[in-house]
Amino acid sequence: MESFEGRTAVITGGASGIGLALAERFAAERMNIVLGDIQEDALEAAVRQLESRQANVLGVLTNTMLRDSVNALRDEAIERFGNVHVVCNNAGVFGTRHVMQPVWEVPEEDWDWVMGVNFDGVLYGVQAFVPHMLGHGEGGHIVNTASVAGITAGGGNYGVSKHAVLALTESLERDLVAAGGEVRASVLCPGFVDTKIFEAERNRPDVLRVGENQEGGEFGRAMTAVGKAPAEVAEAVFDGVRSQTFYILPHPSWDEIVRERTEQILARGDVATFDMERLRRKQADGEQI
């Protein structure tokens, strides 16, 4: 995409973190902004914040685990602003309680929640918006948020969900090219970002809770605190949309780890291990991880 002014961007998980930063970046290009989020108070605050900057913005309470809710987001966006041109399937959660458990011991509720938001929400966004975007013929771009957990080994159910997003988006881009037209896709694979993802338990549906609510944790707070600012990630996404870059990797400090995993696969070797100490050394040397 080269033209943004007057066009419409829809962003899930848009009330905070990377989602809100994306909204602010697209609003700076004079785009119409539609925010979908499950947290009503944060959504209302985000809408007020963007309106204070003279943005045309609509907030829609959205549960990305539900296909009907994502379809309603699409319908409200079209009703308010007409054709949609950019869709950021960005909503994501990280379950802190069972992250250190073997995958066979992770409760079903955790699988349902993490996969429901991180993968199903992206799939529903693709299914809801792509036919509309291909149909209006004005071009557009889909950005699906994965993670470095989607291009490295491990990561528990969170990593599984992000690998699935990567595979889905690679298939999506292939299919969009085959379909012709001017709609393309990108996958965003950030490292640690200064967001509230490690506090995502606050939005877990009651029916999927396991034991007492558990927020964040020392690891999550420490890593997000030293991560990139959401605005830096949003800038990388905007550049990717403008240049039609498929793989958007805003954290170069992970490149070596990704390369080593690929080499181990080609060598038919053992599963790559997650070396947190190496990342800490990179952090100590001033790199953002």
Structural overview:
The protein has two domains: 8-250, Rossmann fold (3-Layer(aba) Sandwich); 252-289, no CATH class. 47% of the residues lie in helices and 12% in strands. The protein has nine helices and seven strands, in the order βαβαβαβαβαβααβαα. α4 packs parallel to α5 (156-179). The chain starts with 7 loop residues before the first strand and ends in a 5-residue tail after the last helix.
CATH class of the largest domain: Alpha Beta
CATH third-level topology of the largest domain: Rossmann fold
- Coarse structural class: alpha/beta
Q: How many structural domains does the protein architecture include?
A: 2
Q: How is the main sheet built?
A: 7 strands, parallel
Question: Which percent band covers the strand fraction?
Answer: 5-15%
Intertermini distance:
29 Å
| Helix residue percentage | 40-55%
Quickly count the helices: 9
> Radius of gyration from the CA trace?
18 Å
Q: Spatial order of the strands in the main sheet? A: 3-2-1-4-5-6-7
